[in-house]
Design a protein that fits this description.
alpha+beta; three-stranded antiparallel β-sheet; two-stranded parallel sheet; about 15% strand
């Protein structure tokens, strides 16, 4: 029932406008100078981003969302040693990105 309600909350209005009805959030396209690539935590953990950068991938700006950083930091302090090791690899991958590129 809840999933059905959530799915009904999403509506597509035109090709460039996406609305979330409950709570109402409107996504507006913004003009940017370079294409943006959003990096998720799994890309940092398994090292995919580092391999992509080795191919001289410079035509786009990398964006790492704050919630992804918070996830890496919170799980890196986890008592579970397996999860802790994975997330620490993600933090190391992030440090490698900072060394290679200007990240803000």
């Amino acid at each position: 029932m809840l999933v059905n309600l959530i799915l009904k909350g999403f509506s597509l209005r035109g090709w460039d406008e996406f609305n979330l009805v409950i709570p109402y959030v409107r996504f507006v396209p913004h003009e940017v100078d370079v294409p943006l690539v959003v990096v998720d935590t799994s890309g940092l953990i398994d090292g995919r981003i580092a391999r992509v950068l080795e191919t001289d991938f410079r035509s786009a700006a990398l964006v790492i969302p704050r919630f992804g950083l918070k996830q890496l930091q919170s799980v890196a302090d986890s008592p579970d040693p397996i999860r802790q090791a994975r997330e620490r690899r993600g933090l190391e991958g992030l440090a490698e990105l900072r060394d290679r590129r200007s990240v803000s």
